[in-house]
């Protein structure tokens, strides 16, 4: 599985996707507006791009879900699910879009029910309970074969008391799966940490509850079946202005955010983000001629391996930069971990961050035993 954001279409049209590598592609994003209709995020051409994506996917026997929300598209979610009337209106609008674009499913990426994501978002203590009522109505309204998923935090949905629910079995009854967004654990910082840790192997993380391992344990402990969990992984990392040669540990003081140095970002990307393919294109990573699909640091950067999180990072003393990211090695380990844990699969955000040879995706597939 992979996300396809609308804003990448100018440089990576949907016709360039190798659908033999994916079962599902999530088109990102539509978002609820103040009247609980669906608006489009990222491009005025989004409806046309979605139509093309569905056409080419169906031609190759693959399926497309529309992802609703996202970090910048969750402002009105709370209001859209707050009452029976608003839920019915929102569901009806989703159903119309589902039919209009010949979709195979809907992905709900509300960031986050009962918690403040972006500062403009509306939040209510009843968000999670209302979200469940909305999902039940959506399930009853969409065709029986429609798939409904949700992109979620590494901890279960927030209850009315602000704490993660200890029982989410009711959500498992109406969702086909959830994608655990195990990325953005640390962004750009003078004291950087891993973007997407596999685990807290050294037991010294400043955020021990945020990793692939912790996410799987949290959701399954709350009653969500492993075979309805999908592990979300990134094809991007973060560039930090820092002279450190190791990643953040619990016994170190956390520093306030500092200056962020750009390597390069795509339209729609957040400040400080850099995609794996850009690290390769700009000569920060170079292929190891002795090992297929393996990259080493170059251009003044040294590649290191953080055994505590099972992720790589690059550092350069010449320019005081540290780049935390994932590569074929770390993603392969995550995929293998997901397979051994009986998870449904992997979803990468996003597919355009990979190289032209699909090296990240192929590493994921290998880890999954495909």
Automatic annotation (TrEMBL):
Reactions accelerated catalytically: Random endo-hydrolysis of N-acetyl-beta-D-glucosaminide (1->4)-beta-linkages in chitin and chitodextrins
Record bears the keyword S-adenosyl-L-methionine: no
This protein's UniProt keywords: Carbohydrate metabolism, Chitin degradation, Glycosidase, Hydrolase, Polysaccharide degradation
InterPro entries (alphabetical): Chitinase_II/V-like_cat, GH, Glyco_hydro18_cat, Glyco_hydro_18_chit_AS, Glycosyl_Hydrlase_18
Cellular component per GO, a single term: extracellular region
PROSITE patterns, per database record: GH18_1, GH18_2
Top-level taxon of origin: Eukaryota
GO biological process: chitin catabolic process; polysaccharide catabolic process
Keyword flag Cell wall biogenesis/degradation: no
Gene3D superfamilies, sorted: Glycosidases (3.20.20.80)
GO MF entries: chitin binding; endochitinase activity
Domain GH18: residue ranges: 1-370
Family: Belongs to the glycosyl hydrolase 18 family.
PANTHER family assigned: CHITINASE, HAP41P
Stated name of the protein: Glycoside hydrolase family 18 protein
